Each structure stands twice: as structure tokens, then as C-alpha cells.
């Protein structure tokens, strides 16, 4: 069972990483990111296929398959279809969205399986689910901090250049183009991490069975944070908004993120950290 638990963890983390690369390719047409995403997703497919073959050999009779194996096959099919679509049609957004659903189904299936043991002996299985959820969320928030810092640098440089003020500090900063690019890349990393974290949070609530938590202030505000960064990416990719407007919106999105993080301690029913 311990070996199976490490296999489950490996599939979940590799799956999440592949989605991060796919999202990066979708918003930036990055071939290297697409190759990495495809390679990692293919590795997830190999691990899933190996587990399915093991299950078939172990059960022999399909009538003994449980709901766990059924949902596992469903997730495997989603991965298979997305790989084929990516290979022959190259619809990156479709691949990303289908695999977000597949990721959520797989996580719900793993962590709801009766008798499964967590990786660490003193944890219960919900602790492990929450650990992955928190890890993804913290990674997303860290990326948003980096993005906000670069947007602040962009506004500073933009103002100094507009007013034709030069200083030694300016020479030590990257160009406007680079600061805008770095802010964008950090947001591209943070947004899918937050989306995956939210999806695991939804899985945790579903397993707990307390569906009123879907309307908890932290959960609702997290959707607003995600939408704020999606709108930032939308403005940059499709509307081609000027850099100073993008930087201002990125900072506004970060303020929403900060308020979401701080106010949750007072208003959330279960997202309290003190």
C-alpha cells in the first residue's frame, strides 16, 4: 500500500506540473513548455496504464472492478484523448481544460479510496490532500508576489522615463520590456497553480460532505483572485493593453490576493491560520 501511495503522489504532482507547462504554452506559444508538458503528461499516461494493467492482472474478472478502478479508467481516458487531440489537432486550451477536469477526478478518486494509507504514518489521508492543496496555493501566491514586484518595477521605470529622470538605480533594473515579460511569466505560473489548488479544495469539501463550505468567504474570494489574474492575462494576450495599464491591473489583482489571504483569518469558517 505504501508503494501504491507513492505512485498516487507521483501521478498527482507530475500531472499538476504537466498542466503548468501546458498553460504556459497556451498563453505564450512556448514550444519548450509544450514539449515538457507533453512529456510529463505522457509519463502520467504510462504510470496510469501500468497501474491499469496491474489491476487487470490482479482482478482478472472485470465484474470485481470497484468504483475506484472505474473512475481511474475515466481519468485515463481523458488523458488519452487529450494526448491524441494535442498530437493531431493541437488545441492547447482544450487539452488544458480537459486535464484540469481529469486532475480533479483523479485526486477525488485517490483520496476517497477506502483503506488508502497516507505517505506519512502520522497523517490521515485528508491531511495529505490538504498538504497538496496548500502546496499548490502557496506556490501560486509566491508567483503572484514575484509578478507584483516586477509590475511595481515597471511602473517605476515607466514614470522615470516619462519624466526623463535618470538615476543609478535605473541602470541596475531590467528594461521595461523585460519587467513586463517577467511579470507575465510569473502570473502564467501562478494562475494554473491556484486553479489546481482550488480544484483540490473542491475535492476536499466534497469528501468532507459539508457543501456549505463551497460558499465560504475564502473559497468565493479565491475565485475572484483567479478571475482577476485571468483578466490580466486576457488583456495582455488578446486586448494587447499597454504595459502601464497591465502593471496597474496586476497590482490591483495582487491587492485582491492579499486581502483574500489576510481577511480569511477573520471571516472564513475553516481557512484560519492563527
Automatic annotation (TrEMBL):
One Pfam family cited in the UniProt record for this chain: Cytochrom_C_asm
Any GO BP annotation: cytochrome complex assembly
Listed InterPro entries: Cyt_c_assembly, YpjD/HemX
Single GO molecular function: heme binding
Protein's UniProt name: Cytochrome C assembly protein
Gene source species: Paenibacillus naphthalenovorans
